Amino acid sequence: xxxxxxxAAGAGTRMGMPKALVRDEDGTPWxxxxxxxxxxxxxxxxxxVLGAGADEAEPLLTGLAGVTTxxxxxxxxxxxxxxxxxxxxxxxxxxxxxxxxxxDLPDVTARVVARVLAAAPVGPATLARASYGGVPGxxxxxxxxxxxxxxxxxxGDRGARAYLAAHDVALVECGDLATGADVDRR
Length: 186
What we know:
27% of the residues lie in helices and 23% in strands. The chain is α/β, with parallel strands linked by helices.
């Protein structure tokens, strides 16, 4: 089993609002779209980490099956705090791995998630991530054996970057499916 871990806690200062509250042009919230991408791509359940705008964002997830929300108390210090909060929430889950995704990647689809999940045998030792034109990106598949090390190294806005740089990570090319570009401005 793989749980999705959606990081959606940031204030989105360049966006002018928390990214968890941003909507596509058709009105679809990025938050619900991202949860659906993870579920349709093969994640059994999804833990969503909220911070800025959490009171307004949480109701957007009401009624979505297999979704749990947690709040990062120190979300304002950067993505690292949100990642650590999410991995801690997964400690008690019955899962071998977590697929970490970011709410501000609107062109990443369920096909990207499915490709990353299919590319490596999923287990506690797994480390894989999507790449776009050879450039590493998200989502990132973290086997449970790596969670403590990732959480320890997750500082500021760097998330798991230092940990992943020090370990052998399978890159899964997804540039034919998406750009993987994060959206910071309207």
